[in-house]
Amino acid sequence: SGEEEARTAALGVYMGVNDADGFVGDLGGGSLELVDIKGSTLSEPISLPLGGLRLIDVTGGKLEKAASLIDRELARVPFIETCRGRTFYAVGGTWRAIAHLHMAHVDYPLHVMHGYSLPMSDTVAFCEHIRKVKKLQSLRGISDVSRQRREVLPFGALVLERLLVTFSPRRVEFSVYGVREGLIFEMLSEAERAKDPLLSFCEDYARLRSRSLAHAHELCAWTDQLADVPGFEEMPDDRRLRHAACLLSDIGWRAHPDYRGEQSLNVVAHAALSGIDHPGRVFLALAIYFRHIGLDETGLDDLSARLKTALSRPVYRRARILGCAIRAVHMLSAGMPGVVAHTRLTHRDGTLVLELPQALAALDGERLRRRFATLAELLNLRSDILLIP
Q: Residue 152 — pLDDT band, cuts 50, 70, 90?
């Protein structure tokens, strides 16, 4: 039924979005399904006859006749008032095509659809632009949209525009996860459903591509100490992003040293990650990039330089700090387990201190001290490495 389809699409969004809170809309050829979502709680699903193909049939292909019909159907939704100021999760091929066209329109640096987010006002303005353009062929990126999809594109844009004007969400987030993923999610065990989708992916990828998954987990625990250092305070989502970066930190080790940073950045920036938004994705990509290249920003290539502009200064600074921390630890451990866990990171009297047991004294050297000093400098601290009994 339409209500079951709405719930299943929302489960797909829940599977692919971290802490979903808003309402889901799944636009198909025959209908539009809407449902309120807050975490795993789904309520008041409804199906409306507002699919692109149906609107073409009902209006005889006349776009100007569709607006009043759309408004009349949207007025039936029982949870309009509760949606104001929240997030609208857009599902369906037509709306993904609109997101793709917007990316091309603004020359967006990433070509990843899932998690692409826009303020409501920008989305409404772009939908209006699609609706009023004389020739769809003049839109940047239209050649990547199938010919069958182009026919319904103006109608899909009008539905999205009227929906946003009616519901007044704060922003729109596009999801490639929908009914198919929702059906899969229903088949999973409770234990599997409870896992963090981002960290699950990163762990599996580290198992496939890194020298040691055990070392990646040691990095997660070691950088937990960094969270206690002044200047690196973090929120819960910062912690999961830090752990994700640690898990992915060694996936480029097989590449030539001159290209590890660039290749790792490309892999992470465009990976099939879920449970993460675009700023989080960019943070991960840049943290891993700096883990390989250090802080010489003269080496930023075109993609990394453009991604830099997608983050606020504080978040960009965190990416640099985390990248430098991981870089220093890899100098110590060579990506293998059994070393990092025996060291300790502390800070006292304005100094960041790395404590090494006497048994690891041979690992203390100029390169390690230089990398550790760079980390301390980013934190506005002095640095010291102490050998302890």
A: very high
| CA distance linking residue 133 with residue 128, whole number of Å | 8
pLDDT (0 to 100) of residue 298: 63
CA triple 345-284-306, angle to 5 deg? 125
The answer to whether the Cα torsion of 179, 181, 184, 189 is positive or negative is negative
How much is the average pLDDT of 337-347? Answer: 93
**What span, in angstroms and rounded, lies between the C-alpha atoms of 320 and 380?**
13
Q: Are 260 and 330 in contact (CB under 8 A)?
A: no
Q: How far is CA 205 from CA 165, 200, 245, 267, 346, in A?
A: 41, 9, 12, 11, 30
181/308 Cα distance (integer angstroms): 32
For residue 173, give the nearest of 28, 274, 282, 311 by alpha carbon: 274
Q: What residues contact 109, with CB distance under 8 A and at least 6 apart?
A: 303, 306, 307, 309, 310
What is the number of other CB atoms lying within 10 angstroms of the CB of residue 60?
A: 7
Q: Which helix (H) or strand (E) holds 53?
A: helix 52-59
DSSP sequence for 136-202? GGGSTTGGGS-HHHHHHHHHHHHHHHHHHHHH--SEEEEES--HHHHHHHHHS-HHHHTS-HHHHHH
pLDDT of residue 297: 66
Locate 34 and state its tokens.
């809407």
How many whole angstroms separate alpha carbon 331 and alpha carbon 318? 20
How far is 28 from 47, CA to CA, in rounded Å? 11
Do the Cβ atoms of 98 and 153 come closer than 8 Å?
yes
339, 304 contact by CB (below 8 A)? no
Rounded alpha-carbon distances, angstroms, from residue 207 to 212, 214, 229, 251, 261: 7, 9, 30, 9, 19
- Give residue-wise pLDDT tens across range 109-148: 888 999 999 999 999 999 999 999 989 999 999 999 998 8
CA pair distance 365, 278, nearest whole angstrom: 38
Orientation angle between helical segments 120-132 and 93-106, nearest 10 degrees: 100
